[in-house]
Specification:
The complex is a heterodimer of chains A (270) and B (310). With 270 residues, chain A is an alpha/beta fold. Helices cover 38% and strands 12% of the residues of chain A. Chain A has a single domain, classed as Thiamin diphosphate (ThDP)-binding fold, Pyr/PP domains (Rossmann fold, 3-Layer(aba) Sandwich). Chain A has ten helices and seven strands. In chain A, helix 3 runs parallel beside helix 4. With 310 residues, chain B is of the alpha/beta class. Chain B folds into two domains: 3-168, Rossmann fold (3-Layer(aba) Sandwich); 174-309, 3-Layer(aba) Sandwich (Rossmann fold), CATH 3.40.50. The longest helix of chain B is centred in the N-terminal third of the chain and has 15 residues, at 6-20. Chain B is globular and about 55 Å long. Classes of the chains: A alpha/beta (270), B alpha/beta (310). The A-B interface holds A 56, 60, 62, 102-104, 110-115, 117-118, 121-130, 132-133, 135, 152-153, 156-157, 159-160, 163-164 and B 25, 47, 49, 51-52, 54, 56-57, 59-70, 87-88, 91-92, 95-97.
Chain lengths: 270, 310
Amino acid sequence: MSTAQLAATCKQVRRDIINMTANAGSGHPGGSLSAVELMVSVFDRMRIDAKKPHDENRDRFVLSKGHSAPCYYAVLAHHGFIDRAEYANFRQLHSILQGHPDAKKIPGIDASTGSLGQGCSIAVGMALGAKHRGMSDVKVYTLLGDGEMQEGQIWEACMAAAHYKLDNLTVIVDNNGLQIDGRNDEVMSLGDLAAKMRAFGFEVFELADGHDLDAIAAALDAAVPAGKPKCIIAHTVKGKGVSFMENQVGWHGKAPNEEQRAQALKELEG
Amino acid sequence: MEKIATREAYGKALVELGAQDARVVVLDADLAGATQTKIFKAAYPDRFYNAGIAEANMVNMAAGLSTMGLVPFCSSFAMFAAGRAYEQIRNSVAYPRFNVKVCATHAGVSVGEDGGSHQCIEDIALMRAIPGMTVIVPADANEARAATFALAEFEGPAYMRLARLATPVFEGDMVKPFELGKANVLREGKDVAVFACGLMVSEALEAAKILAADGIDAAVINIHTIKPIDSECVMKYAKQCGHVVTVEEHSTIGGLGDAVADVLMGKVNCSFKKIGVEDRFGQSGKAADVLREYGLTADQIAENIKASLS
């Protein structure tokens, strides 16, 4: 898709995020809105087909930061995996749209996530499995939160990605700088993430603007040396696109009320 | 009587299985020598993945591998598999119902010298509490082999508990076919029904012989599948005998005893006694000495059963 088309999709995804969380009266708008351009761009490249959601040869995506489920569901709906009518049931009893992604319930979701720190390891297992089976076309993507990188298991996974030379793996960090209890730097400093990822053996691409679709495309399409996993650290804005949510810790896990929904949708008009 | 550890039978079974089923891959966390997955590694180096000392990542890599059409068996000590990686098993394997087999060795106090830090006595409780989890505790080497094959056949998440200690391999009439979820009655009896698992099955059989000399006729049932438990068999023998005793090399909190009690509670009127590790940590010592310290030898079990009947 063209950049203009992707931008239009991003706007629709943002509206969907606002509507889903407002309908449910709960959910995580902040970290969903920061991930929009990243997830839309990844899915634009993935070899997937909603008519064949279990095709062995498809690319894989693991939303390690599972609380960005509203963004994920909106992107999956855009690609035909989910009926938009399901949005009304987000976070409701018996819904396929669980608060955090449940792979049992939705064909197209490759792993159940939500407990932070685990998705990256699952993606490493998928990339290793693709190598094991000689499925050289299969690419595996995983999207992490920066706060999530405080989990020690992330670093176990990164170590394994380099050890097993998983150049079919792309780890993307939605680096919005905020977590539930405050700014990352106040809660638990992550230090120089890019240097850490390089030291762990990744080919690192750092994006000053993690909402710049062209920059994201360039990083996703950039070649890596054989045997090296890729890491894209994208500096994003939590709550991006909705003025009163941008860079506000309070919008991590709080849904907009009706008034706020109306204002947000107005700001996101196409 | 020949003695072989269930972990060794598991390692050998993996090689046999590997020859039959190309989907099988094996993971370990730097304990391949101890868990015996090294036997598989030697036979199939390209199908063995070491995670290093990183059990959480090992379990989740297995989850990822399972989504790629492979059947991963992953091993570590029970303490680090069911213990440290509990939440990984719960959320990334069992919750999505991925086809991962967690086969943990060095369970129970029979680990011996390494002591309490390495003697996991809570793994059955942790694993059986997870919705939909299958939990297997083989009683001897043959059963460990059969269970390994059964797990490869079975589609879904499962936990198998294996031991470090070499223990008697059942012979003659004691050798029974292995079917997931189907208990094996090893000795008929009318006075007391003794339900045991793992290494305690052979101790319970010895205890039954001691009891027989005192005129007590004990039935001994091997509950190799803790979950889903063979409720029909448990009910039948509890009703038949009126007295129930469970024996396990595990905490009396949440293990086999509680699984059997869950079947019987409110349904069968019988006396009930749990034999196991009673809310204590393990400790160092020779395996035989440690088992004696915790009351898990045949003569102690026989005494304990006798006391419960009087």
